[in-house]
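Appendix B. Chain record.
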Amino acid sequence: MIAERFSRVRAIQLLGILLLGSTAAQAQIANFVDDFDGPVLDSGWLVIEPTNHVGFTGTGFYEMQGSTTPPNSATLQRSPGATNEDFTADVTFELGGTTGESVDYKFRFLATSFMEIVANPQTDNIRVFSGELGQNFGDVAGVGLGDGTVLNLRLSYDASEGTVKIGYSVGSDPLTLLGSATGLNNFQVSNIDLNVTRISGIGFFTPVMLLDRFEIQDQVVPITFAAFEDPFDGPALDPSWDLIQSQPGDHVGFGGGLYEVQKTTTSGEAGLSRDFGGQADFFSSVEFQMQDFIGSDSRVEFRNPAPGGGITAVLDSTGNVRVVSEELGTTVADLSGFSYTDGETLEFSVSTDSVNGLTEVGLIRNGGTPLLLASLNGLTQFTPTNNMTVVIKSGTGNGNSPRLLFDHYFLDEGFVGIDLTPFVEEFTGPALDSSWFTSDSGTGSLVGFNDKGQYEISTDTNVTAGVSRFIGFAGNSTFTLTARLNDFLGTDTDLRLALTGGDALTVILRSDDTLGVISDEFGSVYNSAGLGLSDGDLVTLQLTIETEFGDWEVGLGINGAPEFLASDFGYSDLNPTQTEIEVVRGSGGGAARGGGGSGTQPSVLLDQTTVSEGFSLIPQPAEAFSDDFDSAPLDGNWNTTGLSHLGHTNSMYYAMRVDTNAQVEMNRFLAPNGFPGVPVGSFSVNADVRFDDLVGAGDPGGGTDFKLKIEFTGGVMEIVFNSFRTIRFFTSNNGQAWFQDTFTEFTDGDTVNFSIVYDASGPSVTMSVGLNGGDTIFRETRSNLVGVTPELFKISGFRFNFDNPGLQPTFLIDNLEINPGLAGVEPGPLTLTPAHSGLFELIWDLGVLQTAPDITGPWSDVTGCTSPYLHNPTEELEFFRAEN
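Structure tokens predicted for this chain:
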């Protein structure tokens, strides 16, 4: 799976398109109005097919004909005066001679990629075609086109956004949005056409286009979409609503800012319907409550009917939610277990991007986070022009008559996407957010919040307890849970992070020190060996999913950031709708609360849970390595370059000598199998290197730099030791050496002890140096190293001066260890000094700051703090420590 991870990462890194271009305006848009009153055409017009131009009628029209003999069309054309500026073009004309004829009335825009608005009385529709998109992006039927129809058309172009909006209306009606398209790069209009074309017919009538008015403006003029909002405050319904009822008593009326519909019989349906016209981008939603509903064998439906198949969001009286697409002929979302209860407020929404054929269905529960129920692509027939919200009673059920209470309705122009709303739950209390649901098959397992920002779950035997929340169809997303395990091991207990809905995935951290992943589709898909858990550990589980190819990855951190454990792909329905955290205890191990068994009572303290958008690759552990370099051959993962590699000497060292001003180096990848771009988690590097002929008797000694370096995309972190006895710590993120001092204690023949510790949870790096196995002499930490993905570890030297040619600087590598994680890494000193206003400042290098009322404990994390940390002391005795 490493190869798949690498391929995906590199594809993401290499995918990029740079669009450069500049187009100078040729001229300004020429504002122009023509009422076609005559007696002559404005000189800016070009007459095409002049035999079919009747001309001015004397009644305020200019007449063109679609002749029954070739040529069958007539065109009036003019230039807007510019090709790449904002403009709005309007035309009003009357249709005539349409009986028995198939005729197109066209408003055309000639450009690098042309566009046309076409009205056809025979099919009674108006459509918009874009040559750049290669498709219609607006099409409305049932307009009522015929002889005497006055049609108003508008095209509005925003050059900065490349956005075109089309509006239409009949007679004196306000304009309605017909279609919109964004990102048009080739819509630089050179000419605008008014055209009538006879396609076919019986030949007895000559179709005519009676031009009444034309205007072009050098600005973006809005198109009035029939936007509408109804808070249902009464006292009467807006006249645009149509009543749906099977009997007069179905509509109860207004009360308390709600409009009530009740269904007492099993025949028919009751509710409200409203036409909104147009077939373009839109967003519509209905907010409602249900009473006497659960168990009544009923359902409420928010319908968006369309000629080719509509979309309906359904709430069943079982408490479940589903979404049905008639065009696809299937249920596209099914939230079984949604557990709606009477009186809750729900809001269904439907939004459509008509150009791209994208429709999203959303849900808001009790005013909370918008949830994505369905995201549907390629719905070419989904062109709704009205909304219906109805309640239907299918059977007797519990005998209740369900009441549908309308709270709010909203309709507006434009597509409103429903993205996953990231959330972070810190469990600080005093109560769970209303979006959480709790479950407890025992009694009192949900102990609740403590004063450390944790939520405790402690279960008796044969008990399952936990919390869950709906997230909607989240798409690519990452789920993280951090929890502390107290008295956990050996208690026959599981901590489970589950994603349910579609193909459910469950990550199980077991009290036998193992971890497993279970899929509804494939069963048990991963089981770990021993993890090295200890009671009291702070564990972090991370599960990240990519829905298109059904990929998932699982990571685990023990007292640190999560690192990669397992991955797989090809899960056909990996699109969860709910996240669940459960503690499940079996019948063995530990004791029940209040005694009655041997062992201890397990306790899981939920510390934090997050959901974020996007498939986030989980860091792989660095490849563990240990070598005392006592004997050849060199480990095969090393790459060697430059002069001179002396190799293993005296069965004690691996030696490199700097003979010339070229570099000598040995390097190895930190990522498993050497794939760059795969994130690496926390790790530590310890190297013991003896130096001969480095400093000599005077400056600049051997004129040489020695470097212990870790490279990552876009930068390095390194320790530099040179022949001036200078020690320097450097990370390119900081842009300069952030520590530099003179190693006065060093003499040729000494062994320098180097250490680099990378804490991915910070992220931070701690560098330190000691001498001949003694105490650390230099130690510094830098945090907030954003964007670091360590890849390559290097040991190198470079000779920059030959003032002392008799010296031959030699590096003798005595010992090297690379260890994944932070286990065994000393946190370093913790200092506490008085600050200001009675506060104390605590500074530490690594690990988590913990506090206790006594030196023997119990210890608990100080949540939400980083070094340096300002502490306001209490009157009680307090102890602090930094713990990995």
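Further analysis of this model is presented in Appendix C.
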